[in-house]
Amino acid sequence: MTATGAGPRVIGMIGGMSWESSALYYRLANELVRERLGGLHSARLVLSSVDFADIERCQAAGEWTQAGELLAAAARGVEAAGAELLLLCTNTMHKVADQVQDAVGIPLLHLADVTADAVTAAGLDTVGLLGTAFTMEQDFYRDRLTRHGLRVLVPPADDRAEVHRVIYEELALGVVRERSREAYRAVIQRLVEAGARGVLLSCTEIELLVGPDDSPVPVFPTTRLHVEAAVAAALAD
């Protein structure tokens, strides 16, 4: 489907991974459109929310192609419903971003590209990466960032394990604990001591726990950056 010129382009969102962060995507999109257009304006969007339990089982089993098939089907659904650009509302599942993009004819706005653009615009070249273990330890996300000229630091193994645990056992369930916030602050501090000049909050749920006040260097909230880029693209014409 192509834009009709009747208004902003329709944003397609594939969410549910987890729905806690997808709710933030939805809220931010509507707030940003209202800020840009004023009055009673809200975002034109189509949201497909998958069952995260199905995706998590694929992650744990290493069945990434199967997970990609589930998300590709969701992408085809939002395209058929009128979406004109696509957001995959999860950093981790950008591992299958190419599989999802290949399933549709509308452009997928890649989260790592949006994030790298923000870091570059801030004049930084060395960043720490927080996310799920998959995002921190595998190449699909880090390599995409390094292609933009960034140096990417990840926490040591024990810190990676704790960051991952908090995401899956707490944040994805809507649980926000002060002791976990303190643990993240300590991880961030160690990344800064290792040379990070900024920190990427590269799991959509992390923004539910920490923000700029929790870091001595700039943080880059990937959910907000992703939505800001989508709204800018939707309103560009």
- For the largest sheet, list the strands in their spatial order: 5-4-6-7
Share of residues in strands: 5-15%
Structural class: alpha/beta
List how many beta strands DSSP finds: 7
Shape, per Cα inertia axes: globular
> Class of the largest domain in CATH?
Alpha Beta
Question: What's the structural domain tally?
Answer: 2
Mean pLDDT: 94
Helix content estimate: 40-55%
What is the CATH topology descriptor of the largest domain? Answer: Rossmann fold
Radius of gyration: 17 Å
Family: Belongs to the aspartate/glutamate racemases family.
Pfam families: Asp_Glu_race (PF01177)
Keywords: Isomerase
InterPro entries: Asp/Glu/hydantoin_racemase (IPR015942), Asp/Glu_race (IPR001920), Asp_race (IPR004380)
Draw up the topology in text.
Elements: E1 11-15, H1 19-37, E2 45-49, H2 52-61, H3 64-80, E3 85-88, H4 97-102, H5 111-121, E4 126-130, H6 133-137, H7 139-146, E5 151-153, H8 157-169, H9 178-193, E6 198-201, E7 219-221, H10 222-235
Parallel strand pairs: 1-2, 1-3, 4-5, 4-6, 6-7
Helix pairs in contact: 1-10, 2-3, 5-7, 5-10, 8-9
Describe this structure in words.
This protein folds into 2 domains: 11-110 and 225-235, 3-Layer(aba) Sandwich (Rossmann fold), CATH 3.40.50.1860; 112-221, Rossmann fold, CATH 3.40.50.1860. It is built from 10 helices and 7 strands. The chain has helices at residues 19-37, 52-61, 64-80, 97-102, 111-121, 133-137, 139-146, 157-169, 178-193, 222-235; strands at residues 11-15, 45-49, 85-88, 126-130, 151-153, 198-201, 219-221. The strands form 2 sheets. Strands 5-4-6-7 form a 4-stranded parallel beta sheet, with helices on both faces. It is globular, with a radius of gyration of 17 Å.
